[in-house]
Amino acid sequence: MSAPESAFDDLIHPRQRLMLCAALTVAEEVRFDLLAKALEVSPPTLSKHVARLAEAGYVSTRPDKLDSRRLWVRLTDTGTEAYRGHVQALRELTSE
């Protein structure tokens, strides 16, 4: 795997979106309610952040096959690339 291209991303940078992307890089897919709990944010707050990231193509969502009221969230390939580039830009910014 090659090193990500460094690129600061204003869409990912807000704390809760950065935490959301970080959580989704660890798990392939996370149920919305569990993600809200893990990030310690309310469902409406998480919903707004997921919507912004989805508009940019960084995350995708799907309903649960057994319970359509439950939603699953995943980082797309585009989102993974943007997140890794953002983290690389932060590393470069903070390195001595």
UniProtKB/TrEMBL annotation:
SUPFAM superfamilies: Winged helix' DNA-binding domain. CDD domains: HTH_ARSR. Residues 1-96 form the HTH marR-type domain. PROSITE patterns: HTH_MARR_2 (PS50995). InterPro entries: ArsR-like_HTH, HTH_ArsR_DNA-bd_dom, HTH_MarR-typ, WH-like_DNA-bd_sf, WH_DNA-bd_dom, WH_DNA-bd_sf. Gene3D superfamilies: Winged helix-like DNA-binding domain superfamily/Winged helix DNA-binding domain. Pfam families: HTH_34. SMART domains: HTH_ARSR. PANTHER family: BSL7504 PROTEIN. This is Transcriptional regulator.
